[in-house]
Amino acid sequence: MNVHARAHSHNDYEHTRPLLDALNAGFASVEADIYLVDGKLLVAHDRKDVRPERTLEALYLRPMMERIQRTGSVQPGTGTFQLMIDIKANSADVLPILDRALKPYERWLSHGGSTEYIPNALEIILSGDRPTRQLAARRERNIFVDARIEDLKSPQPGVFRMVSEAWLSHIPWFGSGLISRQQRAWLSDYVRRADDLGIKSRFWGLPDTPAGWRILDAAGVSWIGTDKLDVCAAWMAARGL
To answer: Which domain covers residue 95, as residue numbers?
Structure first.
């Protein structure tokens, strides 16, 4: 199986087999949206769709850690696997519950402080309603934050491990034709700023097509996100990505 080190499974939990379908397609990152309901972290895109058995631990944390214990990694061939958790609301309440959920797995989590980052088998990134202030106050952390471009004006050392932006907010390209020279320059600057900080770059809301993936690849965007696991995996394999 080819491992695609830049492949990110957007809204991964909506696939038939959350996590497993992405792993079988060779992906190195998955995304789970969560709500805090009755003390449990439940995975769903919309609050009305939560189900008590679909917890973050059942769908992601436990199977990931079982794989790490068996093979040393979540995805063989990938040193660090990324779990991006999109907190849909109330991050201040979610954070202590998430801390408790991660406690049994601490030894396998990437961690660090303001001057040092130590990669491990699994990296946890929080997006959506981000508890940036609470995490920035910690001297050591094993949970990191998905920045926005405004955050890069005064980056907080050791807090951000990725930057994400809505594609159409910056580049009004809807899937056909070419992006302009000015747009390419903006895109290159976005990637450069992330690279200079040693963090990864990502977009959401890009047309989920080979044409869109080509633009991201050519610009050097770190993560190529998709809902089309097998199609994107085949596209990446054909290009050696």
So the answer is: 4-238
